[in-house]
Amino acid sequence: MKKKLTQIILSVIVSIMPFYSLSGQVIIPLPSQIVSAPGFFYFSGTTKIGSDESTRIPSYLQTYLKQRQTALNANGNANEIIFTLSNQGLSEGYELKISPNKIHVTGNDEKGLFYGIQSLIQFLQHQPLSNGSISIPCQTITDQPRFGYRGIMLDAGRYFQPVSYIKELLDMMATYKFNTFHWHLTEDQGWRVEIEKYPKLMSKSAWRSETVIGHHNQKPRVYDGEKHGGYYTKADIREIVAYASERNITVIPEIEMPGHATAAIAAYPELGCTGKTLEVPTDWGVKEDVYCPSEATFTFLEDVLTEIIPLFPSPYIHIGGDECPKKQWKESALAQSVMKREGLKDEDALQSYFIKRMEAFLKTKGKKLIGWDEILEGGLAPDATVMSWRGIKGGIEAAHLGHDVIMSPNTFCYFDYYQTDAPGEPLAIGGKLTVEKVYSFDPIPDELPAETHKHILGGQGNIWTEYISTLPKLRYMAYTRMLALSEVLWTPVAKKEFLPFAVRLNKHIDYWKTKNIEFANHLFEIKPTLTTKEIGLEVALTPFVPWGEIRYTLDGTEPKSTSAVYTNPLLLTKKTVVKTQSFVQNQAKGHPISIDFLPHKGLQAKILSKTTPSKTYKGAGERGLINGISGSKTQFNDGEWQGVTPGEPFSMKLSWTEKQSIKGIQFHAFNDPESWIYLPSEATIYTSQDGTTFSKACETKITENKDTKTLAVDIPCKITSQFIEIKTPAMGTIPVNRPGAGNQAWLFLDEIRVY
């Protein structure tokens, strides 16, 4: 009875969690220390706001506080808010002391005072009104950031982002205590910064004739026929830098080199290796055109940086350095002559030479160089800071070498990925990155020795914009995950806990909705766990957060408030469509999900052996290829598809307790050459009498199919056997003129149905 009562109490608590906030728990990112005290401070129209003579409060913050007061009761208590600088403690730290008669915000420095005020503003935004005033629970908050670099990158190269968009993003960054704006200003598809010495960069490089519609991988491609482009004048840049500075945000510009340079080469062909006349690309993907390592190229880039540097007080300049194709360098007599002259063994070393020259130039201007982790290839520039995006490996390597690192792995920090598998999501580049996974990120890897931790400056979220062309889309894709990352970079690890964060996040999402700023809210999604049983498939449904209840149907109809309530795992033994959705107080929340189960003989099979999938793309586990569930038709990393490590053949051996009458096998293969994923050339079925010696029974050849992302491969094969093996050969090398040329192709497989 006592256990049941406890379960009821817990159920009530979690059902009201979205609408309840403990003392101090409204703030994102969560402060380092909160000590509660009795009573409330009531902020009203009569509250005095002041500061000591040495304290500078940004004018826009003073304006906000006064505007907030005007809407409140003018007959409140005589209390005050005081701001003070202590000039003690760690930079960016603050204390927020709230008592019934006074709120005292003390900053260790002006940055700390700024963040203390931001925490106070969050109280004013999210605490309830009481008799014409805002009640703030008494407490003392002592706070400071975990990392000194807390960044957000915006790609303005793919789509020009108006100044107004950037200002809103900077406001959001300030609210949630980010302090670095990485501004990606040049790309293959557009040059976005005014350079007076090279006017064609504005007239030619800043514009493309049209833009691909839909996903870049869809064939045939369709274009919108509309000219797109724009660039930031030097006045625009000064305005943005000043706006950011007032919000304690440093702006770091990125000028891409030596790759991602097609737009610039389109204006000045002599910068490239081929001399061909180019157009600014109208679709996405990595382009082959690169800056050729000529003296004319270095002069151009130095001239560009000479105009850029005075606009940005930042100590850093980002030079890109990622995804640099080497094909044109291999074919260029000039590039090869530079390699010979400088004693460079290969094109990776040539890229290193290129980066080192640019670092040496930046040093003469008093600037430090940041580059993506590809700048490690061929040897790292002496004092370069590495931004690790291809996972964390590059960051670990750089830290071991004694270089500073900013962790920005795509697996945790790419906000252009899908946020859920739910239907109806806006078009994204691919992948999936939930807010929970962002929150689980730790910029300091476990395998990094303690003595190298000092080299991890912090982390950064990246907003790539191939599929983000409007402000509402930018908000939807970035803002929710930004809040999770803010807590990753600010809050002590020991204080982090996802469920309490989700409670606060839900309050913030609801608040911004009242301001007509739409955040993505996937907190009410349902996560299915599928387990193969001897007689079918067990489906366990877990709410993303434990609020409300899960309702479901088994007849393909949409769940309603009167549908069955999920309490225990469902056992499916026949063809079934499960549909399920979260409900809170009888209101549908989140997205409904659908699970189409199609049983086949493979479900009852024992796996004798199976090729180990890639560590990065494990799919749905050991039995994921024979669980009765098909993966996404558009996303290869949806949790179902399994990737075979390039260069390895695939094999799976199955056995049953007795001989099976089999008509054939069907499996699904992913087909996405843009992502280096190809169809296998053939597939073969083998049989065995003893489970040890196998002989070929049937095979089928597979031809390239450019019109579909996935292909169902049928191998008709009438056999009676207790043991079978399915095999495909190792994938070959990606051919020239294809993305990833020269590398081993990937093979991705999904449901293998034995019928």
The CATH architecture of the largest domain can be given as: Alpha-Beta Barrel
Overall pLDDT score:
91
Structural class: alpha/beta
Counting structural domains, the number is 4
Number of strands: 35
Radius of gyration: 29 Å
The level-1 CATH class of the largest domain: Alpha Beta
- Outline the biggest β-sheet: 8 strands, parallel, barrel
Count of discrete alpha- or pi-helical segments spanning 4 or more residues:
16
* Largest sheet strand order: 8-9-16-17-18-19-20-21
Shape: globular
List low-confidence stretches: 1-24
Give the termini distance in whole angstroms: 50 Å
Helix fraction bin = 10-25%
Description:
The chain has 755 residues and is an alpha/beta fold. It folds into four domains: 31-143, Chitobiase, domain 2; 149-494, Alpha-Beta Barrel (TIM Barrel), CATH 3.20.20.80; 526-594; 601-754, Galactose-binding domain-like (Jelly Rolls). The protein is built from 16 helices and 35 strands. Strands 8-9-16-17-18-19-20-21 form an eight-stranded parallel barrel, surrounded by five helices. Helix 4 runs parallel beside helix 6 and helix 8 packs parallel to helix 11. The longest helix has 20 residues, at 471-490. It starts with a helix and ends with a strand. The relative contact order is 0.07.
